[in-house]
C-alpha cells in the first residue's frame, strides 16, 4: 500500500471515529516516510485517544514540515490546533498564546485567510479582558456565517454563549448555547470535535447558573457521544461540570459518582479536569462535615488550584487569618469581574469577621453588593447573606431583614444546603424574641441537613433546638447496607489501621482503600475515622458478617 493510500485510510478512520485504526494507518505511513500529513493525522487520532502530549509532539513536527514545504494554510491550521491543545488539555496558557502567535504570523506572511475566523475565536478564548473576549468571539461568529464555516459557527455560538453567561447575561448566553447544541445534535457539524467544544461549554454554563435540568439533558448527549466515539477528555470535563451542578442541588450521592468517575478517567487528560474533580470532592466532604477526607483530597493540590475549598477548610479549622490571606490573594488575581469573585468575597467577609476586622469585612461586603447589582444567579443571595453577617457583627438591626432576603434568593435558586443554613441562622437570630418561629426554622433546617447528610450542620441545628427545649437529632437516617468488602474495611478501620495499611492487608490499591472508607462513612452517617472506630466499638457484640 502506498503512502497516499495509507494516509487516506487513516483519514477515513478519523472521520468515522475509529481512532485505533487511524493510528495504525498513520503509523504504517510514517514507517515508509515521514510526511506532515501523516504526522497531523497521527496527532488528531492521539488527541481523541487522550494522549495529548504525544498528539502535541506529532503536530509540532507537522507544523515545521508544512512550513518548510510552503504549505502555509496547513501550517496555520495545525498551529491553531496546537494552541487549543496546550490551553485545554495541558493547561499551558503561555504555550497556547505562543502557538496562536505562530498561526497569526503564518497568515500574515502569506496572506492566507482560511483560518481568520478561528484566529478570532482563539483571541477571544485567550483574552483576559471579558469585553474584548466577547467582541472577538462575535467577530469569529460573523466571519463563520459569512464564510459558511458551520463548525466554527457552532463553536463560536457556544463560546460566546458561555462568555455571556459568565458576564451575568444568562438568558442571552443560554439561548446561544441552546442554538449551538441544537445545530450540533442535528448533524450540521462536519467535525467531530465540534461536539466536544459545544458540549463542554454548555455544561460549564449549566454549572455556573446551577441549571440542573439543562445539565442533565446535555450530559446525556455527551454520554451518547462517548458510547459512539470515546473521548476521555470530553467525558472528564463534562463529568466535573455535571457533578458540580448535582453537588449544588443537593444530589450528593449522584454528585460523588460523577466526580469519582471524572477523577478516574482524567488521569491522562491533563491536570485541569483532575484538579477540578479533586476540588469538588473536597467541597463535598466539607459539606458533609468530613474534614479529614476533604483535606486528603486537597493534599495534591496547591492553594492556587483550589483556593475556595482550601480557604473554607481553614475557616472551619479555626484559622480565619490564613483563610483571609488566601481569599485576598485570590481576589487580587481575579478582579471583581471574574466568575469566582462573588463566592470568594462572600467567604472573605466571614473570614474577616472571624478575625475581628469588621471594617474590612464591611468593605468586602460592599464590593460584593456592587457585583450583585449587575449580576443575577448566586451574587444577590451571597450579597444579602454577607450583609446580614456584617450587620450581626456590628449590632445593626437589619440583620434579620437581610437573612430573609438571602433565604428568598437561595430558595429561588433551589440550593438546599445554602437555604437550610440561612434558615438556621435566621432561627438563631430570632430565638430570644420568637422561640416558636426559631424552633420551626431550625426543624426545617435540620430535616434538610439530615436528608443531605450534612452532619456538622445537623449537629448545630440539633443543638439550637435543644437550647429551645425541643428534641434534637434522633440519629442518622437512611443508613446504607455495607458490602462485604466495606465490612472488612470497617473492621480494619476499627482496629486503627491507616488506608495504606488497609490496602496492604487486603491486597488492594491505596486509592481503592480510600474509596471504600469514604463509601462506608457515607452509608453509616459517620463524619470521620474516629467516629468509625467508635461505631465498631459499639457494635462489637454483633456477629461478624458471613
User: What proportion of the residues form beta strands (DSSP E)?
Assistant: under 5%
Number of strands: 0
Number of continuous helical runs: 29
Shape: globular
Cα-atom Rg, whole angstroms?
Answer: 26 Å
Helix content: over 70%
SSE succession: HHHHHHHHHHHHHHHHHHHHHHHHHHHHH
CATH class of the domain at 327-467: Mainly Alpha
CATH evolutionary superfamily of the domain at 327-467: Tetratricopeptide repeat domain
Average of per-residue pLDDT values = 87
Question: How is this structure best described in words?
Answer:
This protein is mainly α and 546 residues long. Among the domains are: 114 residues, Alpha Horseshoe (Serine Threonine Protein Phosphatase 5, Tetratricopeptide repeat); 141 residues, Tetratricopeptide repeat domain (Serine Threonine Protein Phosphatase 5, Tetratricopeptide repeat, Alpha Horseshoe); 55 residues, Arc Repressor Mutant, subunit A (Orthogonal Bundle), CATH 1.10.10.10. The protein is 78% helix and 0% strand. The chain is built from 29 helices and no strands. Helix 6 packs antiparallel against helix 7. It is globular and about 85 Å long. The relative contact order is 0.04. The C terminus is likely disordered.
Amino acid at each position: 500500500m502506498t503512502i497516499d493510500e495509507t494516509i487516506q485510510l487513516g483519514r477515513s478512520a478519523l472521520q468515522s471515529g475509529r481512532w485505533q485504526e487511524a493510528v495504525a494507518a498513520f503509523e504504517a505511513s510514517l514507517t515508509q516516510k515521514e510526511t506532515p500529513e501523516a504526522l497531523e493525522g497521527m496527532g488528531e487520532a492521539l488527541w481523541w485517544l487522550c494522549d495529548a502530549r504525544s498528539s502535541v509532539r506529532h503536530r509540532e513536527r507537522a507544523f515545521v514540515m508544512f512550513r518548510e514545504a510552503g504549505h502555509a494554510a496547513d501550517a496555520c491550521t495545525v498551529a491553531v490546533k496546537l494552541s487549543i491543545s496546550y490551553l485545554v488539555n495541558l493547561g499551558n496558557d503561555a504555550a497556547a498564546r505562543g502557538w496562536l502567535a505562530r498561526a497569526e504570523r503564518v497568515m500574515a506572511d502569506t496572506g492566507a485567510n482560511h483560518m481568520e475566523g478561528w484566529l478570532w475565536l482563539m483571541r477571544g478564548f485567550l483574552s483576559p479582558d471579558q469585553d474584548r473576549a466577547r467582541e472577538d468571539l462575535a467577530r469569529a461568529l460573523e466571519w463563520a456565517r459569512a464564510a459558511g464555516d458551520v463548525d466554527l459557527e457552532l463553536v463560536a455560538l457556544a463560546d460566546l454563549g458561555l462568555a455571556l453567561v459568565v458576564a451575568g447575561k444568562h438568558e442571552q448566553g443560554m439561548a446561544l448555547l441552546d442554538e449551538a447544541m441544537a445545530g450540533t445534535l442535528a448533524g450540521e457539524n462536519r467535525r467531530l470535535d465540534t461536539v466536544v467544544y459545544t458540549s463542554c461549554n454548555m455544561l460549564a454554563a449549566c454549572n455556573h447558573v446551577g441549571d440542573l435540568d439543562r445539565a442533565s439533558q446535555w450530559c446525556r448527549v455527551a454520554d451518547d457521544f462517548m458510547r459512539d466515539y470515546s473521548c476521555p477528555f470530553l467525558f472528564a470535563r463534562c463529568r466535573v461540570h455535571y457533578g458540580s451542578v448535582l453537588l449544588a442541588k443537593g444530589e450528593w450521592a449522584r454528585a460523588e459518582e460523577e466526580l469519582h468517575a471524572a477523577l478516574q478517567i482524567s488521569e491522562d487528560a491533563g491536570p485541569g479536569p483532575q484538579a477540578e474533580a479533586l476540588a469538588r470532592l473536597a467541597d463535598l466532604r466539607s459539606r458533609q462535615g468530613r474534614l479529614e477526607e476533604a483535606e486528603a483530597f486537597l493534599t495534591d493540590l496547591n492553594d492556587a488550584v483550589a483556593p475556595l475549598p482550601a480557604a473554607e477548610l481553614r475557616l472551619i479549622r479555626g484559622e480565619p487569618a490564613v483563610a483571609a490571606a488566601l481569599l485576598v490573594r485570590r481576589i487580587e488575581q481575579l478582579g471583581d469581574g471574574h466568575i469566582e469573585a462573588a463566592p470568594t468575597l462572600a467567604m472573605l467577609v466571614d473570614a474577616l469577621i472571624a478575625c475581628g476586622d469588621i471594617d474590612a469585612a464591611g468593605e468586602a461586603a460592599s464590593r460584593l453588593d456592587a457585583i450583585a447589582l449587575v449580576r443575577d444567579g448566586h451574587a444577590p443571595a451571597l450579597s444579602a447573606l454577607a450583609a446580614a453577617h456584617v450587620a450581626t457583627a456590628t449590632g445593626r438591626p437589619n440583620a434579620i431583614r437581610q437573612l430573609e432576603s438571602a433565604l428568598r434568593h437561595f430558595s429561588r435558586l433551589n440550593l438546599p444546603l445554602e437555604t437550610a443554613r440561612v434558615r438556621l441562622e435566621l432561627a438563631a437570630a430570632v430565638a430570644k424574641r420568637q422561640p416558636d418561629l426559631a424552633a420551626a426554622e431550625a426543624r426545617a433546617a435540620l430535616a434538610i441537613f439530615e436528608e443531605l447528610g450534612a452532619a456538622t450542620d445537623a449537629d448545630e441545628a440539633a443543638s439550637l433546638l435543644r437550647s429551645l427545649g425541643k428534641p434534637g437529632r434522633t440519629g442518622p437516617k437512611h443508613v446504607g447496607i455495607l458490602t462485604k468488602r466495606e465490612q472488612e474495611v470497617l473492621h480494619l478501620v476499627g482496629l486503627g489501621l491507616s488506608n495504606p495499611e488497609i490496602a496492604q492487608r487486603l491486597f488492594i490499591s491505596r486509592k481503592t482503600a480510600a474509596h471504600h472508607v469514604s463509601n462506608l462513612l457515607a452509608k453509616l452517617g459517620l463524619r470521620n475515622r474516629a467516629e468509625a472506630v467508635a461505631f465498631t466499638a459499639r457494635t462489637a457484640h454483633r456477629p461478624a458478617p458471613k
